[in-house]
Structures are given as C-alpha cells and as structure tokens.
Amino acid sequence: MTIVSPLVFHPSPAPGPRDAFGRRMNYLRISLTDRCNFRCVYCMPAVGMKFQPREELLTDDELVRIVGLFAEAGVTKLRLTGGEPTVRPHLVELVRAFKSFPGIQEIAMTTNALLLGRIAAALKEAGLDRVNVSIDTLDPVRFRAMTRGGRFDLVWKGIEEADRVGLGPIKLNTVVVRGQNDHEVVEMARLTIERPWQVRFLEIMPMEGVGMVYDEGLVTSEETRQRLEAAFGPLEELEAPPADPARLWRIPGAAGTIGFISPISEPFCETCNRVRLTADGNLRLCLLHPDEVNLRDAMRAGATDEELLALIRGGIWRKPWGHRIHEGERNTVRGMSQIGG
Fold first, then answer.
1. CB 279 within 8 A of CB 292
2. What is the Cα–Cα distance from 70 to 275, expressed in whole angstroms?
3. Facing residues of 294 across strands?
4. Which helix (H) or strand (E) holds 233?
5. Rounded to the nearest 10 degrees, what angle do helices 221-232 and 185-194 cross at?
6. Phi/psi at 108 (nearest 5 deg)?
7. Class of residue 77 by CB neighbours under 10 A (exposed 0-12, middle 13-18, buried 19+)
8. CB of 285 closer than 8 Å to CB of 292
9. Residue range 140-169, pLDDT digits in tens
10. Torsion angle of alpha carbons 263, 216, 46, 44, nearest 10°?
11. For residue 1, with 0-12 CB atoms within 10 Å meaning exposed, 13-18 middle and 19 or more buried, which class applies?
C-alpha cells in the first residue's frame, strides 16, 4: 500500500495555533481507531460496546492530509492512540508518512503492547520515537481480569522489545482503581529502581460507559504517593516540563522515575498544549468536553487545505479553559477508546 503525502508544504511563520487564553497547541493526539483488543474495566463497558462503521473512520490518505495541515499550523509533536493503535492496518507506513512532514519533531504512541513485540523494530525504523504502555498490574491473573482477557506475557515481551530497539524512554501508564490494583502500586513503582523507565500513576476519569467504575474506584494521586512513601520513604521531587501532565518523583537512588497524573484532584488545564483528532475525523478540543470540529465531513465535501486550516485554527481558538469535574460536571459523551485518551 502506498500512502500519498500532500505535494506542497508551506511552513507556517507563526509559532503555532493558540487558543483564546494564549496557550500554544503544538501537540496533537491522534486516535487511529476506536477498536481495541482489550476491554479494560476503566475504558470500556463489559458488554454493549458499539464500534463505528469503518466508512466513518478516516482513511489513510485523509489522516496523512490532516496531519500535514496540523504540521503546517505549527504542531510539532504527535501521539498515536486508539482504541489500540497497533490494530490499525498500515501503521508503519502511517508513521513514516507523518514523520516526513517538516516540523514534526516527535512521534510517540500509547499502546497496550500486546502486538508490539512483532512490530517495534519496524516502527522505530519508520520514525516512531518512543512508546507509553498501558499496564495496570504485574499479576498475570489480575491482568487478565482487568483487561477482560489480555495476556500479560505477550505485553511484557512487547515492552522488552520496545526497550531493546530504542523506543524510549519507556513509560508505563497505570490507572489506579480502588479494589482492583491500588494495593499493587508499590510493586509497579519498584520497577524504576533498576530500570531507567518512568512508571506513571493516573487517576481514573469518568468516561462514557464506565461512570460507575469511576464513582467507586477513584484513588487520588496523593493517596498513591502516601502509599509509596510508606514503603520507600520520602520520594524526591523532580522538575518536569511545564506542559507535561505528570508531576515527577524518584525513589532515592532509583534509575527511573515515578509520575503522577492527576486530572481530577489537581487539574493541569492551565498548561494544556494539546488537542485530539478522533478516529472519525473530529477535532476534539478538550478530553472532557463534547465540543468538536468535524474535519472529516468538510474534507469529504471538497474543502481546500486553506479552508481546513481555517477550521483547525478556529476550533483551537475556542478551546475551553478546562473541565469542571470537581464541580460535578460530566460532558464526555464519547468513551475513551473513541476519543484517543
């Protein structure tokens, strides 16, 4: 299969698209598919999950065209997500096409790593820079339960292969859920003692279809940190880039680091630098707001590059300040696998 990139690229003289609050949006998260080979308890309901018809999803050439326009607008970093991005056909070719655009400095991917062992080397060669792996437990039995059928052994092989081929620094994302894996955070953190990895503990979010899991399962980052310090002693706080949602800490003497991502207890909306492209071609302005700009329909109706760029810049300008979950507001409408996390 050949993916055709746009022939003309006009570098933007501007530093990148900004919203009405002055935040620069230089980071695009792209959901390559709403499908996944896991059914994690905090992401999808156990039954009744409905996936979009394939004709509603962006084609390869449509994806490449849109990414080229975001690069022209000033986006410098891409993150490929899903669903599970490794189930998207032609993933390697898409990575190579995305990396060909001037201005795209980094491409990362968030994956469950089930299939990663097979394609890590090819992805690295195509231009993928690093991976984040979603892994919520090191217990194979509990792993199967939380993913509703996943195989821990294949996931771990995928992580090791990604590390071997240089898709690092490796970051492991653990969503902490009360009564599921909150008692295992110490063992997850212990991975950083000998390995130069980053283990990141995330607060669960109230996405569509899993609201009850959120209501019963939220564990704040402060509670997780206290549990870790009870085991390891005081953690060393580290400086992190302003736009990084993770607050960084280290077990004294450890090779790696620990990150806490706290969208519920300590929102980081002030430094947000990202927008999202859903698998069906909508520009999602905020993870927890339903406001979207339909780029797919405009493109299929014959919109020019200039018209699409105007839609992108106009949408980013009206990006909301942030969510109001702490005030009881929930406007997600879509599930996490549909938005791309």
1. no
2. 11
3. 282
4. none
5. 60
6. -120, 170
7. middle
8. yes
9. 999 999 899 899 999 999 999 999 999 999
10. -10
11. exposed
